[in-house]
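User: Could you walk me through two proteins back to back? I'd like the raw sequence and the structure tokens for each, with a short line separating them so I can tell where one ends and the next begins.

Assistant: Of course. Protein one, sequence then structure:
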Amino acid sequence: MKFSALNLHPSILEAISYMGFEEATPIQEQAIPKIVGGEDLLACAQTGTGKTAAFLLPVLHILSEKADHRHIKVLIIVPTRELAIQIDQQIQGFAYFVPVESIPIYGGGDGSEWNQQKVALTKGADIIVATPGKLISHLNLGYVKFDNVEHLILDEADRMLDMGFYDDIQKIISFLPKKRQNLMFSATMPPKIKKLAKTILDKPAEISLSLSKPAEGVLQAAYLVHNIQKSRLIVELLKDKPDYNSILIFSSTKKKVSEIVRALKEGGNESEGISSDLEQNEREEVLRRFKSKKTRILVATDVLSRGIDIKDINLIINFDVPNDAEDYVHRVGRTARAATTGVAITLINTDDMYKFARIEKLIEREVMKIPLPQGFEPGPEWDPKGGSKSRGGRSRGGRKPRNQGNRGRSDRKKSYRGKR
């Protein structure tokens, strides 16, 4: 369906056309009429299906027909500052020809940002995009004016619950008018999301699309490796991919990020790392360099697995298997966006085999296991129950194990489609 068939405000259609988009994705096609019609909504769709535009476009349409722009009308709550910044940037694009103002509210800035946020929360910006913790800091000081909020949107709701924001969300809602439209968007639909929905939504319409499945354009593959082989393997894999100009590597810990970057640089691959150890302005600068292709390889923790709009990523490498099977979908969802293709490779050690077997069950397909390149000692044999016998009687990079219990020990620790 073309956006023009959704009866959106001409100024919004002009902005969409200016950005080069004509066809609505399924989530947009289904969600926009329901939101414009005033219904509460519980929507579940995988990363990369255009969820952000699915709620921004109808809300901007509604705001464009209002004369009063002196009060906060829309509150969007998101789990991370990166997502808050991204959504605010998308609002600026879609509302280019509409007199709508927005501001992101998140932590990590300086005193001037706090004052700017305070002005918006008191004198009014049409749309507030906020992380729970920072918004509550403002609410606790008593000056926030939410009396005129008409739309509450929870984006990445499942991630917010995973991060322990349930009580914060309930506290924020206590400051809002009882009469309002409530929209909840999530990439997954676990029982805790349905429980939250019952406490917030009023007779919601429900949309569920492609639950927890990587995009069809993703070529998925895996290597069975011992931990000692991982860094050398990714350096080797990158040798035959000179045409890949955007590569994202996910690590399970902040410590490993720096270790991977160091190994890549030693192998002749310029790269940068990003994690919560960096200051906010440093993180934003690293992201800008990666988005603009000035940085070819970015190594990140899971902070980037959801909600970051980075187009045309050629290759995703999971240095570690995600602890949560759902997180695999979000990591892999960073590539093959906007009807493009991409490659996602996962490195699996012995202890992670059971976790990866759960992932295969979730996505309802077996991921191809590729033999290690020539010159590598054999890796462990695939055992979806989590134990393995190493090929050739060797373990962990070819060294003979001292006992059965040491085998494979790891260092584990506890359309408009481009916009998500």
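----
Protein two, same layout:
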Amino acid sequence: MNRRNTVIPGLLCLMLLSVGVAKADEALYQVKDGYKVDANTLQGFRTWRQAACDRCHGANQEGMVGPSLIDSLKILTKQQFKTTLIEGRPDKGMPIWGENKAVMDNLDNLYAYLKGRSDGAITKAHVQPMDQ
């Protein structure tokens, strides 16, 4: 195998990896002043409110009957978060949300909102649009 046959595939792999890294580095949420957020994150907050998650996790996501999501989102991966919502944890009182279209359509937005709260970037539980 000549040098050209090994260098070009190697460069192609590096280019593809850099695209993947750029995708991974994209911000999940945008926040200004601790409570003004982008439209998707705002939709995540609205989904949180609509599903009444605060009944178990508290109005500030710090836990009540259910665990603190501020703490949980520091260790759960996005996939683990999604699996928990889709399958629930009936043995621990967590409902199965997999058949709830409003929640399923906004899983990424809900994750972004809660991750922003967990990261400390979103400092108030009640958020507003960035343009206000």
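The beta strands are 31-32, 36-37, 128-129.

Let me know if you want the two compared in more detail.
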